[in-house]
């Protein structure tokens, strides 16, 4: 009988992300990654995205701002 935990069965979707961070501009993100062990970076990034860092790609801040301005103008007419 084999020893150890039973292998988990799951379907994985894999992506590779390359970030170029600028010293002086991205110091908070650099510190975030520097404080993590290499093997914990992916799970920490997933947790950060789930905590509020995700936005639909088609909705930029300017799109939302324009929509709010338009709605306000329509309301005030």
Short description:
The chain is mainly α.
Report on the architecture of this protein.
By secondary structure, the chain is mainly α. The model has no long low-confidence stretch (mean pLDDT 84). The chain contains three helices and no strands. It has a domain at 7-54. The protein is 48% helix and 0% strand.
Share of helix, binned: 40-55%
| Tally of DSSP β-strands | 0
What sequence of helices (H) and strands (E) makes up the elements?
HHH
Oligomer class: single chain
Write down the overall mean pLDDT. Answer: 84
Large-scale geometry? elongated
* Biggest sheet overview: none
As a percent range, the share of strand residues is: under 5%
Radius of gyration: 21 Å
Poorly predicted ranges (pLDDT <50, ≥5 residues)? none
SS content category:
mainly alpha
The end-to-end distance, rounded to whole angstroms, is 77 Å
Q: How many helical elements?
A: 3
Index terms:
single chain, 77 residues, mainly alpha, 3 helices, elongated
Q: What are the SSEs and their pairings?
A:
Blueprint: H1 27-34, H2 41-53, H3 61-76
